[in-house]
Amino acid sequence: MATVYIGGASIDENGKAHGGKAGNQTGRELRKQKWYAHSKGWRAFRAKDPGAAARIAACMAAAIANRHIGYDQYQRNTLYAEAAKHGFDVSKVTKDVECDCSALVRVCCAYAGITGLPAEFRTTNEPANLMKTGAFVELAGEQYTGHSDRLRAGDILCTATQGHTVVVLNDGAKADGDGQIDLLGARILKKGRMGADVAQLQAALIALGYACGSWGADGDFGAATDRALRAFQRDHGLEADGAFGPLSLAALKEARPA
């Protein structure tokens, strides 16, 4: 069974909600971790647009990887202000800034083109504000709120009462999907990327006989996926640079089984 990972902002370097230095001082102020059942219970929300879901997951993964982004509830919107200068591409943030769990989810939504979320976007009002955008559906039922295997990359989890919120980083083993490659092409995919589009690329490569490692289509572009993509590129007369762009997409569509 594929392990489902979630990402979010947690606590500052001193184990407190505020008062630390800007930026991710410990590497764990923002972090990726295995899905867990929260004591307050999760509510689950999914973007109606699969491309938006992929961008939400990609933004969260990029934020976790950027040590300039840390946790502080008193400075929670400094990330939003800085990321806005870069089209909310958090990988381009080079100034030490802060966020908290809900402020980070707001930035991920902005990167996906989902606007209208207020500056005072917090776990207490997050469900109502997400639904107000018209961009999400709530996933009802224990199969989504109490287990991880039906979750998909880009799903947003928020506690049923004030507490915590995270983004799902990869698809669960029983995640519903149409098997298409319609998410591909929105961005260049390469080693280190995560999201639903990565999972679709992996699934397409595996279907063509290119193994992507023991985890399969987990949405995490690691070394095995890099090797598989380079092999595919060589076999189809492309530069084997490990970057999945327009030429590789065209070749994949041509090679994909009917």
Descriptive keywords:
258 residues, alpha+beta, two-stranded parallel sheet, 8 helices, 8 strands
Outline the fold blueprint.
Blueprint: E1 5-9, E2 30-34, E3 42-47, H1 50-65, E4 69-71, H2 78-84, E5 97-99, H3 101-111, H4 126-132, E6 136-139, H5 142-145, E7 156-159, E8 165-168, H6 196-207, H7 223-235, H8 246-255
Parallel strand pairs: 4-5
Antiparallel strand pairs: 1-2, 1-8, 3-6, 3-7, 7-8
Helix pairs in contact: 1-3
Structural account:
Helix 2 links the parallel strand 4 and strand 5 (97-99). With 258 residues, this protein is α+β, with helices and mostly antiparallel strands. It has helices at residues 50-65, 78-84, 101-111, 126-132, 142-145, 196-207, 223-235, 246-255; strands at 5-9, 30-34, 42-47, 69-71, 97-99, 136-139, 156-159, 165-168.
How would you briefly describe this protein structure?
The chain has 258 residues and is of the alpha+beta class. Helix content is 31%, strand content 13%.
- What is the H/E string? EEEHEHEHHEHEEHHH
How much β-strand is present in the residues?
Answer: 5-15%
Q: Which regions are unreliable across 5 or more consecutive residues at pLDDT < 50?
A: none
Structural class: alpha+beta
- Overall pLDDT, averaged? 91
Helix content: 25-40%
Number of helices: 8
Could you give a short account of the major beta sheet?
A: 6 strands, antiparallel
Rg estimate, integer Å? 18 Å
Count of extended strands: 8
Strand order in space, largest sheet: 2-1-8-7-3-6
Through-space gap between termini: 28 Å
**What does the overall shape look like?**
globular
